Amino acid sequence: MLAGASDDAQLQEFLSDFIILPFDVSEAVYASMLEKQIRNKGVKPKGENWKIDLFIAAFAYTQQCYILTKDEDFTKMLNCEKLNEIEYYVCKS
After folding, report:
1. What is the DSSP letter of 93?
2. pLDDT digit string, tens, across residues 25-36
3. pTM of this prediction?
């Protein structure tokens, strides 16, 4: 979505509908700890976007938010449950 914006004004207009939450030191520290835990379990991150997933998981954890996702990688980082009959996971801190 964001990459499809043709200019800064269009991007600003699109983002004005959202509340942008800060990614702070506490999220960065937790992301680092989470990455270490994952690697200590022997889980090998895959794909080019795994760091983004790591930051999303850290943010959800520190802000005590839920994640609704189809991305199974979050099950390696957070406490996730698969929803009945569909391909989504609900992950919480």
Report:
1. -
2. 999 999 999 999
3. 0.72
